[in-house]
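Quick one: structure tokens for this chain, please?
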Amino acid sequence: MTQTDPAAPVYCAPANAAEAGRVDIRTVRSNPDYWYPVAWSREVKPGKTIGTRYAGLPIALVRPKEGPVFALEDRCAHRQVPLSKGEVKGDSVKCCYHGWAYGRSGRCIDVPYLARASSPTGCAPFPAASRMG
């Protein structure tokens, strides 16, 4: 089976959540040195995004039409709207509310009504991979 096998789970690593100080990983009994399944690959269709949770944190899993799956904090930096309700455009996800776009790294790469030089900060990225197959 390959990384794009729909029967393979999608895994996220909790390290960034702990580093961001939002969740004490010890309280959810997970080890930051391991990866944890958060969804099945068949649930994350090419060109789509889904919302899931890990350790109480909302995560948006995004699978571009080309390239591997990536995970971002499931909230737009602008109005906290879930990015999982957004639209995948190339290698980014666009918020459904005001159209802010976020790349794989979580950095805000486009705000339709602002100059590029004044782009705001983005959202937290999570390590993600489709494995076990």
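Residues 18 and 24 are 6 Å apart (CA to CA).
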